[in-house]
Amino acid sequence: MSVRPILQWPDRRLRTAAGDVAEVTDAVRQVWADMVDTMEAMPGVGLAAVQIGVMQRLAVVDASDRRGQAVLLANPEVLHASVELRPHEEASPCLPGVSAKIERPRAVTVRFLNAEGAVEERDFVGLWATSVQHQIDHLAGRMYFDRLSKVKRDMLLRRARKGG
After folding, report:
1. Half-sphere exposure (CA, 13 Å, Cβ side) for 65?
2. SS3 of 50, please?
3. At a CB cut-off of 8 Å and minimum separation 6, what does 138 contact?
């Protein structure tokens, strides 16, 4: 296990959709282990593989209070999202020093391959739901600030270039 370097915006890989994972192998489990170590070192509540330069649809999410509860996801997709939205201040280690309030569905049902390689469907609520949606965006080549209006996005990116 090891902490991997995080890609920094505007690295083009952050704008590239990751490829599907054909099956969960020991190599995939190793990437997940490194992702958990990297997420814990940030510290953060989630990480997508593209953020460490691995162009596979892999994500880890741990929004628990005591940590050590990471959910490992391959090929995650939202099957259902609640109508009710939840605002949350989001940030990314790929663009340090800035954050923005983003509204996302408060709850989502996600289908993914789990650590055993089995298809699983799980409901995520609150911060868990926000984080899993944030990671799925990363896997599609999107950043959280893409959900802002052009004016707010431009202001955030200007602030980031100035160092927060």
Report:
1. 0
2. helix
3. 14, 48, 50, 51, 59, 92
